[in-house]
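During the no-cost extension, the postdoctoral fellow (Dr. R.K.) reprocessed legacy sequence entries with the updated structure-token encoder. One reprocessed record is reproduced below for audit purposes.
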Amino acid sequence: MHNCPFPDLIYAIDIGGTKIDCIRVFNGELTHYQMNTPNSGFYNEDFKLLREWVANFLIAGEGKVVVSFPGLVKEDVIIKWPNKAYWEGYSLREDLCKIFTTCKVEIYEDCNMGAFVNYLIFNEKKHSLYINIGTGIGCGILLDGKLFTGAQGYAGEFGHTIVQPDSIIQCTCGKRGCLQLYSSGRGMIQRLQEKSKLYQAVSSLEEFSSDSLGDTFVKETILEGAKLFGVALSNFISIFDVTDIHFGGSVLHNQLFRETFIQTAHEIECEFLQRELHFIINPFFNSSLIGALLKAANYDKLPNERRTFFNDSLKKFRSVNYQRLVL
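Re-encoded structure tokens follow.
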């Protein structure tokens, strides 16, 4: 693999609220592994299960590990992860180094890794956004071709912008009326469960088929979430003057949500500056995982001729729901 841009051995890992994914690269060959995210209620027990899973594909030798993580990490310690608050206060990097003993381990916020994919799909654009709409909502920002993380490293907390200031619903962040209370997958399910006991057993928006849109509560909840997301997105576009946006996340599999937020954002833009919007939706099954892979390979620093390797290597990770829109 003389022309392969990867190090000989790397692991790209995405830790999510429901799944943990890994792509191992060994001598230029990419292999995907997946497990359900442990949910024992105890960090050490969860990590034991993670260690046992990694042992199935761990290879001896020096390499690099890049981890995409959905919580806030400061000085290697998890300081905030609403999905699993019992992980907070532990040093994830320190514990991962005990597994990958001969590898360099790096941890990054998951949406920042999703933004890394923009080097691939918006390869000639200096400014772009990545927005994930799944269990929660987050954003990665590329400005002047560089990842923008803010003064404290917490830029892009899009899901915690307030869209309903008079709301009495409190978010896990402590504020009230946050976007992800209404537009994330978990938020919309919670709003449905407040309306009727019929939805208590529902755990994912994907459980609703197109036939479910005959259900008034389901349709109203999805429309509300999508319209609020479209309005918030329009605000973000106005703040950053960025019109190249990459979207990922399971909520986008819902056609009504997807079409409604796109229409809402486009209508607002048509009334204002009439900028041309370039949206790419779900190019990969997990953009944060692919971004971690690109980060490990130093993709942003590779010459163009070597970047072409990824066009073939990453084809098997393309999403069946991939869309490219110009509005």
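The radius of gyration is 20 Å. The chain has two domains: 9-115+285-317, 121-281. The remaining legacy entries will be reprocessed before the final report is submitted.
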